[in-house]
Amino acid sequence: MKTKQELKEMVCAAIDARRDEIIAFADAVAAEPELGFKETKTAAKFTALLEGLGRTPRTHIAHTGVVDAYPGARSDLRVAIMGELDAILVADHPDADPLTGAVHACGHNAQLASVAAIAYALHDTDLMQHLGGDIVLMGVPAEEYVEITYRNKLREEGKLWFLSGKQEFIRLGEFDDIDISVMQHSAPAADGYKAGASSVCNGFTVKLINYKGKGAHAGAAPYDGVNALNAAMLGLMAVHAQRETFRDEDRIRVHPIITKGGDIVNIVPADVRLETYVRGSNTEAIMGASEKVNRAFRSGGDAVGAACEIIELPGYLPVVQCDALNDLMVEELHTLVGDQVMKICPGFGGGSSDQGDVSQLMPSIQSFFAGVEGGLHTRDFCMKDKELTMITAAKAMLCLVIELLYDDAATGKRIKADFKPVFTKEEYLRKWGRLE
Ligand SMILES: [Zn+2]
Ligand SMILES: [Zn+2]
After folding, report:
1. What angle do helix axes 393-418 and 108-124 make, rounded to 10 degrees?
2. Residue 133, C-beta contacts closer than 8 angstroms, at least 6 positions apart
3. CA of 211 relative to ligand 2 center, distance in Å
4. Which of 20, 82, 120, 161 is the most exposed place for a label (fewest CB within 10 A)?
5. If DSSP states are collapsed to H, E and C, what string results for 152-189?
6. Cα(104) to centroid of ligand 1, in Å?
7. Quick check: 185 and 196 in contact, CB under 8 A?
8. Domain ranges for the chain
9. Rounded CA separation 310/317 (Å)
């Protein structure tokens, strides 16, 4: 029986030995970036890598998801280690796909590569024989909540219920037998730390707003029309007039875009569409701000006599911190990267992730590795430190899981027992899934 320390050294050496293959995999994923629920090539690459190691993963879960379970010597606990398959849309990024505008400017290729690194380590060592629980590797679709109209169409066709991958994994039962979830994300290097155990993350709801007016000749008879674009502009101004009522500590962000401003210039716009998130640090504040935003958008329609239809969709929930997991990860990070470690790093506080939803159901952690130059989701994004965001990140996650599952999974069981979920799965599906 190897000691915990011997196991950690063993898997770190195994990951180092596969460094070139891990980075080549990340580069191959970056070379063909795909947006959420369309990640067929990415999923195929991840599946091929696992199959090349003699595995038979389950595929096409929530359209493109991939899941591969590794049993331990005992199966007292199950830990998921997740990577995201999708890219983001930044059409003017130099590496963007010229057809779709997709690019890995959120670093999910590095994240997926770190899960691939763990697959290599599990293949190349006898780690699982020493653990009292199972590891489940997941390639999860669609973390970026984008192309909302497209995804809502899939929803209306019954092909999705939620609009993101982890939410769909929850609904489809992929987390039913998972006790703890682990993942990592790349972060900008400018924040003054090399790695953080976790980060604050906002939640949000989503709205599709459709103003319906009346078309008329824009020159000859504008008085016969009802201008839906004017309604939308007044609605946007009314949203701005709510901002002074948002409390700093609630971190409310409302950031609408117009996705359709009219049809042709010489007809009064009769069909104008917007999308928006309403983000915040807690569900109560999000729902309160959401009501104000609805009222504001409706007022634009009232002012000009246009109809205002608002479709509400569940976005993501704020991240629930698991203090015990964060503390364990801080220890691993100190060993791997030295002093420049934060427990809760600040850089991602205004962002959101569907890991937030998972974190409301079970102990979860998303650690951050500051290897990026340029901002996330910008044309300047550049994955600079691949060693940190792929190799070190993989080691940190797997060493954390060794802590959780060693000694008949004693630590993992204790963390699970101490954690108070906000929702059961059924409550989550009812309350958040239907925005009750
Ligand atoms: Zn992102
Ligand atoms: Zn991301």
Report:
1. 80
2. 72, 74, 75, 76, 77, 78, 79, 179, 404, 405, 409, 412
3. 32
4. 20
5. HHHHHCCCCCCCCHHHHHHHCCCCCCCCEEEEEEEEEH
6. 9
7. no
8. 4-201+317-431, 204-314
9. 20
Q: What is the mean pLDDT of the chain?
A: 96
The whole-angstrom separation of Cα 21 and Cα 27 is 10
Superfamily in which the 4-201+317-431 domain is placed by CATH = Zn peptidases (3.40.630.10)
Report every protein residue that has its C-beta within 5 angstroms of ion ligand 1.
106
Between β-strands 58-61 and 65-70, what pairing exists: parallel, antiparallel or unpaired?
Answer: antiparallel
Rg (CA), the chain: 23
What is the dotted CATH code of the domain comprising 204-314?
Answer: 3.30.70.360
d(CA 94, CA 78): 40
**Spacing, Cα 55 to ligand 2 middle (Å):** 27
Strands 364-373 and 180-188: parallel
Cα 292 to ligand 2 centre (Å): 29
Q: What is the pLDDT of residues 131-145, one digit of tens each?
A: 999 999 999 999 999
Please give the distance, rounded to the nearest whole angstrom, from the Cα atom of residue 339 to the centre of ligand 2: 25
DSSP label at residue 226: B
CA of 407 from ligand 1 middle (Å) equals 36
Q: Is the CB of residue 383 less than 8 Å from the CB of residue 372?
A: yes
- Mean pLDDT, rounded, for 245-274: 96
Q: What is the pLDDT of residues 365-415, one digit of tens each?
A: 999 999 999 999 999 999 999 999 999 999 999 999 999 999 999 999 999
Residue whose pair of structure tokens reads 């008329």 in the numeric block: 216
Distance 305 CA to ligand 1 centre (A): 38
Q: 385: which residues sit within 8 A by CB, 6+ positions away?
A: 189, 369, 370, 371, 372
Structural tokens at position 140? 């999860």
Task: Looking at the CA of 146, name the nearest ligand.
Answer: 1
Per-residue tokens: 186: 């790349």
- Judge whether 340 and 196 are in contact, CB under 8 Å: no
Dist. CA 289 → ligand 1 center (Å): 23
